[in-house]
């Protein structure tokens, strides 16, 4: 074990799935033609005034409740001032001293116990517009000749969730992020898809000697938008920091971009020299004081969290299967089958192996019908395979499969086996001569004789017994 | 009382990407100091029992339904653009000054 320990904290951003923007009623539409979703508010025309999107407030409170956060009794929007073409007002409306959601936590279950990740805060802000940098060599802002701005995205409600630096490895960071993402998606407040840009993260990484108190200066990796690169970026930052410390250097707090092609970090060119944002309360918006009855209504709408579901399933199927069922969102299907009397291991096995291979939507499965199929003793392999393929399709009927059981009763199979042995004396001799490979042929003959209704395993066993007994 | 010095005027101007002439640095510095002096009158009062206020109005919880309203036609949206390319606003490159 290395004497160094990795310390990671995350700032996660997610676009809220509202119909309209945060402070104006321009409709949000992914992929709309450029600058067709704008108005005087999101273009910052003089005199235009912002009006808060009520649904965004509700979504943020819901997230806060799911993360066991304190919901603020008084939340205030604030201006974060910086000058950039993607921000026409010259400031972003965000929250600073009084966010909607205060301290909370997310409990990440692992095979070795719970990892408790403390949440510092969750707040609401508006996203910036999209800029394209033209001319210059890199396509980046540095060295570009000019920028093109599309304000459609400008003003999209953006949720920011900040964790304490409680994560101790890249794996732990990814486990946390995945569980947080699932929590957000199941709340129905965001699609949180990194590939589509509706979720991204700033990752704070530092290292320290095991047992050391306090934290060393951290490097912030900006705008990470892939789980894989977040994992690699954490490893790369830790590697470079440890190497620097072992050379006897001291490090400063700094912002970096992770370059996936080279697996290296480069210093991030800041939008604002000293991050001098000059926050102050937004005078155009009044404070939010979430009424208790609103908070209670939203609390009732928060679904059972994924971490708790994993722990509940664990005793029946073990941690790994429970984790897989919940994180692939197939645990409701599993629970339905078990409730309908399917043995837990069989249900888990069918869901995670047979059904998962179909790629079908677990929510579309005829649970009662499929439970009846799985409970049928002696169902043939073919019947199970066909039922599995059809289980999430319209028109599924359990009765089409439950009648297709294999004959496994020795007294029923006896005559067919005797007939096959009598008809194939040559192969019987070969088998008795020590070439057991011929058994497969004989099993096939019995299956044929019984029109495929025999249980192949039982046939195999009965044939072996007969061939040795009668020798 | 706080005093705005020349460096602070230049720093704030730079943050706002404003280029100031020498006499403007002087004039704006003096005006900023006058504003600060006027505001600091408040500190003559004993406000130890007054909770901090984030907004002058005694109003909270103003929000709208999440229902789309018409957007500007793209030509109107771009009418004040200093330059355009296609339906994009064309602006000087962003990034560190
Ligand atoms: Zn708008």
What's the layout of helices and strands?
The complex is a heterodimer of chains A (471) and B (97).
Chain A: E1 4-15, H1 54-66, E2 77-81, E3 91-95, E4 104-110, E5 113-126, E6 130-134, E7 146-150, E8 157-163, H2 170-187, E9 199-209, E10 219-224, H3 227-246, E11 254-259, E12 264-267, E13 280-281, H4 292-301, H5 306-317, H6 319-327, H7 331-339, H8 344-358, H9 367-374, H10 381-390, H11 399-402, H12 410-423, H13 425-432, H14 439-449, H15 456-469
Parallel strand pairs in A: 10-11
Antiparallel strand pairs in A: 1-8, 1-9, 2-3, 2-13, 4-5, 5-8, 6-7, 9-10, 11-12
Chain B: H1 6-15, H2 22-39, H3 74-77, E1 84-85, E2 88-91
Antiparallel strand pairs in B: 1-2
Residues 21, 24, 26, 38-39, 41-42, 155 of chain A line the site of zinc ion (ZN).
Q: How many individual helices of chain A?
A: 15
Q: Which CATH top level class of one domain in chain B fits?
A: Mainly Alpha
Helix percent of chain A reads 25-40%
How many helices of chain B does DSSP assign? 3
The main sheet of chain B comes to: 2 strands, antiparallel
Q: Any idea what the CATH architecture of one domain in chain B is? A: Orthogonal Bundle
Major beta sheet, strand line-up of chain B = 1-2
Q: How would a textbook summarize the main sheet of chain A?
A: 8 strands, mixed
The total number of structural domains of chain A is 3
- What is the 3D form of chain B? flat
Chain pair sharing the greatest interface:
A-B, 66 and 37 residues
| Cα radius of gyration of chain A in angstroms | 31 Å
Bound small molecules, deduplicated:
zinc ion
The proportion of strand residues of chain B reads 5-15%
Helix/strand/pairing category of chain A: alpha+beta
Helix content of chain B: 25-40%
User: Which spans of chain B of ≥5 residues are poorly predicted at pLDDT below 50?
Assistant: none
Number-wise, the strands of chain B total: 2
Report the mean per-residue pLDDT of chain A as an integer.
Answer: 92
Oligomer: heterodimer
Separation, N- and C-terminal Cα atoms of chain A:
62 Å
């Amino acid at each position: 074990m290395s004497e160094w320990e990795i310390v990671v904290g995350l700032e996660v951003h997610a676009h809220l799935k509202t119909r309209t923007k945060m402070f104006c009623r321009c409709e949000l539409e992914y992929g709309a033609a450029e600058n067709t979703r704008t108005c005087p508010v999101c273009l910052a025309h003089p005199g235009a005034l912002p009006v808060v999107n009520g649904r965004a407030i509700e979504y943020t409170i819901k997230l806060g409740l799911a993360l066991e956060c304190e919901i603020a009794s008084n939340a205030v929007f604030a201006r974060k001032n910086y000058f950039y073409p993607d921000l026409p007002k010259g400031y972003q409306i965000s929250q600073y001293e009084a966010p909607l959601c205060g301290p909370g936590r997310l409990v990440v279950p692992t095979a070795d116990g719970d990892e408790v990740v403390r949440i510092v805060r969750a707040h609401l802000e508006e996203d910036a517009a999209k800029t394209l940098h033209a001319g210059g060599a890199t396509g980046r802002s540095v060295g570009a000749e000019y920028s093109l701005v599309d304000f459609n995205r400008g003003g999209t409600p953006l949720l920011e969730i900040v964790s304490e630096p409680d994560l101790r490895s890249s794996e732990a960071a990814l486990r946390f992020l995945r569980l947080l993402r699932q929590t957000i998606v199941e709340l129905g407040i965001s699609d949180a898809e990194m590939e589509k840009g509706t979720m991204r993260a700033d990752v704070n990484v530092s290292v320290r000697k095991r047992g050391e108190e306090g934290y060393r200066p951290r490097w912030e990796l900006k705008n990470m938008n892939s789980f894989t690169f977040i994992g690699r970026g954490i490893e790369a930052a830790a590697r470079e920091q440890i190497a620097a410390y072992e050379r006897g250097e001291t490090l400063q707090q700094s912002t970096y971009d992770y370059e996936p092609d080279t697996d290296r970090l480069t210093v991030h060119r800041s939008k604002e020299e000293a991050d001098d944002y000059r926050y102050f309360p937004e005078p155009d918006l009044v404070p939010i004081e979430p009424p208790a009855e609103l908070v209670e209504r939203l609390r009732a709408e928060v679904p059972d969290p994924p971490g708790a579901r994993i722990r509940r399933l664990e005793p029946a199927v073990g941690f790994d299967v429970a984790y897989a069922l919940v994180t692939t969102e197939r645990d409701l299907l599993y629970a339905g089958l078990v409730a309908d009397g399917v043995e837990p291991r069989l249900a888990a096995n069918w869901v995670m192996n047979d059904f998962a291979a179909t790629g079908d939507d677990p929510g579309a499965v005829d649970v009662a019908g499929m439970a009846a199929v799985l409970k049928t003793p002696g169902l043939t392999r073919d019947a199970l395979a066909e039922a599995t393929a059809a289980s999430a399709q319209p028109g599924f009927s359990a009765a089409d499969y439950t009648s297709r059981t294999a004959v496994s009763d020795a007294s029923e199979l006896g005559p067919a086996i005797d007939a096959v042995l009598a008809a194939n004396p040559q192969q019987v001799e070969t088998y008795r001569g020590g070439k057991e490979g011929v058994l497969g042929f004989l099993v096939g003959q019995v299956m044929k004789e019984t029109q495929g209704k025999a249980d192949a395993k039982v046939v195999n066993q009965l044939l072996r017994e007969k061939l040795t007994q009668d020798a | 009382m706080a005093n705005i010095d020349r460096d602070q005027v230049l720093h704030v101007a730079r943050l706002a990407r404003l280029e100031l002439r020498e006499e403007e640095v002087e004039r704006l510095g003096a005006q900023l100091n006058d504003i600060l002096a006027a505001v600091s009158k408040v500190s003559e009062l004993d406000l130890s029992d007054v909770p901090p206020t984030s907004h002058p109005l005694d109003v909270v919880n103003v929000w709208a339904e999440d229902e789309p309203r018409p957007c500007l036609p793209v030509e109107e949206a771009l009418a004040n653009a200093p330059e355009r390319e296609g339906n994009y606003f064309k602006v000087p490159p962003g990034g560190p000054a």
